[in-house]
Amino acid sequence: MRHLLDTKTLSRDDALRILDVAEDMRDTQSREVKKLPTLRGKTVVNLFFEDSTRTRISFEAAAKRLSADVINFSAKGSSVSKGESLQDTAQTLQAMGADAVVIRHGASGAPQTLATSGWISAGVVNAGDGTHEHPTQALLDAFTIRKRRFGDDSRARDLAGVKVTIVGDVLHSRVARSNVWLLTTLGAEVTLVAPPTLVPQDVSAWPVTIRYDLDEAIAAAPDAIMMLRIQLERMNAAYFPTEREYSRRWGLDAARLRALPEGSIIMHPGPMNRGLEISADAADSPRSTVLEQVSNGVSVRMAALYLLLAGERDTTFRQAQGPTEDSR
Amino acid sequence: MTPESSRPVMHAADIARALTRISHEILESNKGPDDLVILGIPTRGVTLAQRVGALLADISGHSVPVGALDVTMYRDDLHRAPIRAPHPTDIPHGGVDGKTVVLVDDVLFSGRSIRAALDALNDIGRPAAVRLAILVDRGHRELPIRPDFVGKNLPSARTERVNVMLRENDGVDEVTIAS
Predict the structure, then answer these.
(1) Which domains, ranges and CATH numbers included, belong to chain B?
(2) Distance from B39 to chain A by nearest Cα, in Å?
(3) For residue A238, what pLDDT is reported?
(4) Of A32, A226, A275, B127, which residue has the fewest beta carbons closer than 10 angstroms?
């Protein structure tokens, strides 16, 4: 694996490989010494052009548990705020010897540009780009569903026949997009539930069922229900009349929590708007996987960094080092 | 790949005898089955560890904990080869602290896998002692590591390949050497 840019082009085998390696990573996180020496000497740059706390620290924890060096670069207070271009920033990182770049950017496709531009030889991991994709979030969601369903027997299994319902602001959600592609690749049946104003126009081409009524969707007995965050910072138009009305029609309140089938799980990518898309009852119920998603996120990101960085790199940038005879 | 000339060096009966002898030697050096933990190195080391564990239980009448210790993430040659998928590590209940851990692998060659195993073990706990049991020692060590229990010493050329096949993994018990 050279880069991890999206889940749309991720094959079933590659997805399962990441999830299975994440199982091994997760096992190491219960040991006395959680740190592995695997990526010693590698440098991972967190290049964040958009605010993020949990994704950044999750990647940082993942890289550090694998003994990589981590450099955090956030656009605020950096040369980017002085007008430096993505190309110049990337070439600076290349000159510093970055082995992997974890990028979050407000523009859809920025990670793709970084990976294919020839500016850098480093592996690129998309940590969220615009309204395009957020592949590691979808992988950790799939990992969490699989773990809850199969427990210790999760390895090599896909999600065939699992019914997943994703509720909320699908229009602006890269999490929803990445999940749609990944979960359907893994065999799950995905239903999207949203106000008509928050359903993207190209959704007819997606392998999903669309519903507008949350109660009907819950009556269809999903195995997992994923509540998306209402991204108030992206709500620059009138997508729904009031937050109160949104909450009443599309929020997971106590009554809907009771209507969910036995054994179903409640997911949220965080950060939660309690009382808006998810009630405190639902967020704190034993069915909620919110905190499992966070800890699984570290394991999945360790797996992604491992698969990107641990093996031989087929890059033309490093041929200057000569033949690989043992010099130690 | 061009077909290589391959000749058998151990048959099923030889492997069974070697494992039985190793099991007796383990019990002898440990003065019984107490505080033993047998850890196999994936993939075939785990199979051998399970067989040794069963033999130890038969001989001593006490069950001995058997597990698996994956060394992939501790290897020093990760960046020289295409990516390797890690295997599960399974430490028996009770852990390794204060125990005598016997590492089991199929072939001992450079010794680098064992170095990685010692590092991996270090992150899991602090055994009282670590021993090494090997089905085939083919020489060419690159590190100061030596086995405590050896099934067969097999002088080999560095370019030759030693293949261990086990019933559980490959359908047949056999060791071959190919050049």
Answers:
(1) 12-75+88-158 (3.40.50.2020)
(2) 16
(3) 78
(4) A32
Question: First vs last Cα of chain B: how many Å apart?
Answer: 12
Q: Report d(CA A320, CA B6) in Å as an integer.
A: 39
Name the pTM for this structure. 0.89
ipTM exceeding the 0.95 mark: no
The pLDDT score that the predictor gives to residue B152 is: 97
Answer whether B8 touches A (CB < 8 Å).
no
A227/A251 Cα distance (integer angstroms): 8
- Among left, alpha and beta (phi > 0; psi -120 to 50; other), residue B31 is left
Pairing of the two strands B174-178 and B6-10: antiparallel
Burial of A24 (0-12, 13-18, 19+ CB in 10 A): buried
A1/A14 Cα distance (integer angstroms): 8
Indicate if the pLDDT at residue A318 is higher than 70.
no
Region of residue A25 (phi > 0: left; psi between -120 and 50: alpha; otherwise: beta): alpha
Q: How many CB atoms lie within 10 A of CB A296?
A: 25
Structural domains in chain A plus CATH codes? 12-133+294-312 (3.40.50.1370), 135-290 (3.40.50.1370)
Question: For B89, which of A27, A33, A310 is closest by C-beta distance?
Answer: A27
Q: Do B79 and A313 touch (CB under 8 A)?
A: yes
